[in-house]
Design a protein that fits this description.
Blueprint: H1 5-27, H2 35-51, E1 75-77, E2 87-88, H3 91-105, E3 111-118, E4 121-128, E5 131-137, E6 143-145, H4 148-151, E7 169-177, H5 180-192, H6 201-209, H7 214-218, E8 223-233, H8 241-250, E9 260-263, H9 264-278, E10 286-293, H10 296-302, E11 312-316, E12 321-333, E13 339-350, E14 353-359, H11 363-369, E15 372-373, E16 376-380, E17 388-392, E18 402-403, E19 417-418, E20 427-428, H12 435-446, H13 458-466, H14 481-485, H15 492-505, H16 510-516, H17 524-534, H18 537-541, H19 545-549, H20 556-567, H21 569-580, E21 601-605, H22 613-622, E22 626-628, E23 637-640, H23 646-654, E24 658-659, H24 661-672
Parallel strand pairs: 2-11, 21-22, 21-23, 23-24
Antiparallel strand pairs: 1-6, 3-9, 3-10, 4-5, 4-7, 7-8, 10-11, 12-13, 12-16, 13-14, 15-18, 16-17, 19-20
Helix pairs in contact: 1-2, 12-13, 16-17, 17-22
The protein binds 5-amino-3-(furan-2-yl)-1H-1,2,4-triazole-1-carboxamide (9MJ).
Length: 678
């Protein structure tokens, strides 16, 4: 059956459009149509090609995948050898290279092209009459492996060159790499499927490109950055490397966005430093900068050594990964009681500094990576982040390597350590007593919605704990003016103000006090519900898990945390000490009947100082109230914050009672103690 001319034309148009959108999306990172529209074009093309298979051409955008798996890779001899680059590792080495180039050219100053050095796999991609006909790995530089069908699956590699003016034969060379984001995604997916993960993006790129089955390669998030050329016939390229890269981009051959042209070594060094700083923000692994003499005629005058061009140099960044031994694993206790394992390492130079410890995150991570004391490991230090143990070199594991166990007792205070089922983090239950947790606990205890001690901020808490003046939150109530005056930046007036704030905080509510204790899983709303349900602290302290679970919103996890907290003798001592210092609240009868705000409807308008709208909503709902977004005659109260909206006007018009923030807080406190509204 002959193909109607109209179909033939439509197929042509679709291919042109799809190629253009691929270019916008994959090369320029700047799509001009939404994905669904792109998908529609692709679907239409696929449909027409299925109907008229004779229309299928190798450069059709539908033909990126679909080639059958190969038995082995065919070998390809490079027409022009793919040489590697010479490396320098410091500024002196780089300046030395610049001097040799200047001497070689007899010039005072040379124009260089600077570009990122991608950490991937060098490939050669051959275009004949604008069509991709062959792709190969670098191999040993002379003979590589033919990977055409794999490279065809990389969306940023054009199957047909765009624009015009390209040579009849053009061998484009570049680096295939895996973006960091794609690498993370791929590893997560492999892990989910229980398959072996890749150690780093470079290995992932290599493993994906050297797949005998191109259908697997097609599923891997590979990308390419072109940086040069090999064989060129039947046409000419521009006179400068930078101009060639610009032409490449017009033809659909993507190169690094971060390219630059500089004059002389100073500007080159400045570029290197800027790129080193940006290293962590870019979505690809960059192991240095490459500098090339920009003018091609100057490149030709300098020529090659046996190994590498004299006109280019790789100025490497400090390695971010290194190998060392795990001497020990110690456990650090953070402000929330979280136990973090830290590997003590044989000191090693990595990322430009000497590293002697690295985080292992948590016990699950240790087990997953199977890190043992005595192991040889890869450590990584990227930018300013904390060094981490990336993986174990199992092949080098000594016979006496020791498995790491989660401690049963807190290494700082000796309290029980618990790790809830299904959670990664193990925690010390020492609560108020554990010094490592103390600073965080004090800040929480003093915060506005807890005990509300105005002026007790981070700097002050650091000093109080570091000088041993406060060993548990109750010590706050035993501070003297003399002690305060001995602190940095503490004058007569501020000491007096702080003492008064401390004094004022003694009068509180059971809900606030419970919340201030910082029991895990017991937030403000839960504290309020508990206070109302039990009415007194003693009843809460002696409640069984079952009794606790009878409280609305308290499940097994919360109940277990509450029990664990009140089981610790240290916590009980601190509570006693607080009461002896004069911290007090009104206790009431257990309120297990209807909630105090049952049947009331609240509307919130404007911003509150003491909590977000969301928190206000949660607390109201915990008390049984409904929170609505519009005012009607049935609304019980409208809570009016700063800059209220039209709801305030409506409330006034309808005669609905309004509460300012102070009145609202009074109402909440009253209801949370289980007292009916006045
Ligand atoms: C990389 N790996 O990014 C070259 N490279 O130039 C860049 N490699 C190179 N250029 C000539 N940007 C040989 C290798």
């Amino acid at each position: 059956m002959a193909v109607p001319e109209s179909i033939r034309r439509r197929v042509e148009v679709l291919r042109k459009e799809i190629d253009y959108h691929n270019y916008r999306y994959y090369v320029l990172d700047s799509p001009v149509i939404p994905d669904v529209e792109y998908d529609r074009l692709m679907e239409e093309l696929k449909r027409l090609e299925a109907q008229y298979p004779e229309l299928i051409t190798p450069d059709s955008p539908t033909q990126r995948v679909g080639a059958p798996p190969a038995k082995e890779f065919r070998q390809v001899r490079h027409a022009i050898p793919m040489l590697s680059l010479d490396n320098v590792f410091d500024e002196a080495g780089f300046r030395d290279w610049d001097r040799r180039v200047r001497e070689g050219l007899g010039q005072e100053e040379v124009e260089y092209a600077g570009e990122p050095k991608f950490d991937g796999l060098a490939v050669s991609v051959l275009y004949r009459d604008g069509l991709l006909v062959q792709a190969a790995t670098r191999g040993d530089g002379y003979v590589g492996e033919e990977i055409t069908n794999n490279v065809r699956t990389i969306k940023s590699v054009p199957l047909r060159l765009m624009g015009e003016g390209w040579p009849r034969v053009l061998e484009a060379r570049g680096e295939v790499y895996m973006p960091k984001s794609g690498f993370e995604r791929l590893n997560r997916e492999l892990e989910r499927r229980g398959e072996k993960t890749f150690a780093n993006p470079r290995n992932a790129a290599a493993g994906s490109l050297r797949q005998l089955d191109p259908n697997i390669t097609a599923q891997r998030p590979l990308d390419i950055a072109f940086y040069g050329f090999g064989l060129v016939e039947g046409g000419r390229l521009p006179e400068r490397h930078s101009e060639i890269m610009d032409r490449f981009r017009e033809w659909g051959l993507k190169s690094a966005r971060e390219r630059i042209v500089v004059r002389g070594v100073e500007q080159a060094v400045a570029y290197y430093r800027r790129m080193l700083e940006r290293r962590d923000q870019l979505d690809y692994e960059m192991d240095g900068c490459v500098f090339k003499v920009n003018r091609i005629d100057e490149q030709e005058r300098l020529g090659y050594t046996a190994r590498a061009p004299r006109w280019a140099i790789a100025y490497k960044f400090p390695a971010e990964e290194a190998i060392t031994r795990v001497l020990d694993v110690v456990w650090q206790v953070g402000r929330t009681g979280a136990l973090t394992p830290v590997a003590k390492l044989e000191p090693v130079h990595v990322g430009g500094v000497t590293v002697s410890s690295a985080t292992l995150h948590n016990i699950d991570e240790i087990r997953r990576k199977d890190v043992r004391i005595g192991d040889w490991v890869w450590v990584r230090r990227a930018g300013e982040v904390i060094p981490e143990v990336v993986r174990v070199i199992v092949e080098r594991r000594p016979a006496d390597a020791r498995v790491v166990e989660l401690p049963k007792r807190c290494p700082v205070c000796g309290s029980e350590v618990i790790k809830p089922e299904g959670e990664a983090i193990a925690r010390c239950t020492g609560g108020l007593y554990c010094p490592a947790q103390l600073k965080g606990r004090i800040l929480h205890f003093a915060s506005r919605r807890a005990m509300d001690i105005d002026g007790l901020g981070e700097k002050l808490v650091d000093q109080l704990v570091d000088r041993g003046l406060v060993k548990d939150v109750a010590d706050i109530y035993y501070l003297t003016k003399d002690q305060l005056l001995g602190l940095e930046r503490m004058g007569e007036k501020s000491a007096q103000n702080l003492l008064e704030a401390i004094e004022r905080s003694k009068r509180t509510t059971l809900a606030r006090f419970l919340y201030a204790l910082g029991i895990r899983e017991v937030g403000e709303a839960t504290a309020a519900t508990l206070a109302r349900h039990f009415g007194s602290l003693n009843r809460i302290m002696s409640a069984s898990e079952d009794e606790l679970m009878a409280v609305p919103d308290v499940g097994p996890v919360v109940a277990a945390q509450i029990r664990a907290f009140f089981r610790q003798p240290h916590n009980l001592e601190v509570i006693d000490k607080l009461k002896k210092a004069g911290v007090h609240w009104e206790e009431g009868e257990p309120q297990q009947g209807p909630k105090p705000l049952e049947g009331e409807t609240f509307v919130l308008t404007g911003a509150l100082d003491s909590m977000t709208r969301e928190e206000a909503k949660e607390r109201l709902e915990a008390l049984g109230a409904k929170v609505s977004s519009s005012v009607s005659r049935k609304t019980s109260y409208v809570v009016v914050g700063h800059d209220p909206g039209s709801k305030y006007d409506k409330a006034k018009a309808l005669g609905v009672p309004t509460l300012d923030e102070a009145a609202f807080l009074d109402l909440l406190a009253q209801a949370e103690q289980g007292r009916p509204l006045d």
